[in-house]
Amino acid sequence: MATFLLAAAGLADGLEVTTHWRYAADLQAAYPRVTVRPGALYIDHGTVATGAGAAAGLDLCLHLLRRDHGAATANRVARYLVTPPHRDGGQTQYIEAPVPAGGEDRRLADVLAWARAHLDRRPSVEQMAARALMSRRTFSRRFKAATGTTPHAWLRLQRLDTAEELLEATDLPIEDIARRVGYRDAAVLREQFTQRRGIPPRSYRRTFTHASRPAEGTGDGAKAQ
């Protein structure tokens, strides 16, 4: 496995790494200079990145695309792969932001789609539960079973994902983006965005805005999704 090769070469000494949970104890025992975090899907140190297995390898690749080329590129590749753009949490957690499909989950899927389309209205858990024709307690339980996270955490993720896309694809002021994704105060968006990406929204926009937009005169604009 790749993480074992990195450790054997000494490239992971002093670093936190991850691998498939089944082999985590063996990795730690064989290479005590490495700190193994078996719960992580992937860990990125910039020049060294490790993943927790085959599916987590896709998570890591999409993370690297997002890091180096922005959310629009990573999301486009994820659509081609028919996989979520990214999964938060550890190996034992469910996907954080899927849309359930089929059967009784159809109603919940419709609620998630509605909430994503109306982030500017700041949908509450109570409103989402009402649209699902459930009590708040039942809705929260079924929501977590279907998505692996709480409604509040899911909404925050949708706000930040949409903010990334707007920063890349538009020239809207940060204050307008904050309102469009459901923040009352642009300062809250800046704080949460920086916590997630390590850089403030304006720096993110400078890094990714040109890469995410088709060049004028190339004819690519008609193909944009």
From TrEMBL:
Gene3D superfamilies: 3.40.50.880, Homeodomain-like (1.10.10.60). InterPro entries: AraC_XylS_family_regulators, Class_I_gatase-like, Homeodomain-like_sf, HTH_AraC, HTH_AraC-typ_CS. Pfam families: HTH_18. The keyword Plastid does not apply. Keywords: DNA-binding, Transcription, Transcription regulation. This is GlxA family transcriptional regulator. Residues 199-225 are annotated as: Disordered. The lineage of its organism: Bacteria, Bacillati, Actinomycetota, Actinomycetes, Streptosporangiales. The keyword Transcription applies. Residues 109-207 form the HTH araC/xylS-type domain.
